[in-house]
Amino acid sequence: MTTSSVPLRILSLDGGGIRGISSLLILEAIMEKIRDVQGLDHMPRPCEYFDFIGGTSTGG
């Protein structure tokens, strides 16, 4: 068995309605910050930075 020293990155988006919208807006701000810090010319996709993504309602 091999263990990795790199921790898993998990994105959990919970809830619908205004909570779901606010979660998506926060995620958008995080992805914009990653774009700016890394000097990317495109908006990165969450699946490029998180190992597992899941949620309920809007987050699902």
Automatic annotation (TrEMBL):
Annotated ranges, domain PNPLA: 11-60
BP term (GO), one: arachidonate metabolic process
Molecular function (Gene Ontology), one example: calcium-independent phospholipase A2 activity
Protein's name in the database: PNPLA domain-containing protein
PROSITE patterns named in the record: PNPLA
GO cellular component, as recorded: membrane
Coiled coil: none
Domain of life: Eukaryota
Gene3D superfamilies: Cytosolic phospholipase A2 catalytic domain (3.40.1090.10)
InterPro entries registered for this protein in UniProt: Acyl_Trfase/lysoPLipase, PNPLA_dom
Keyword hit for Lipid metabolism: yes
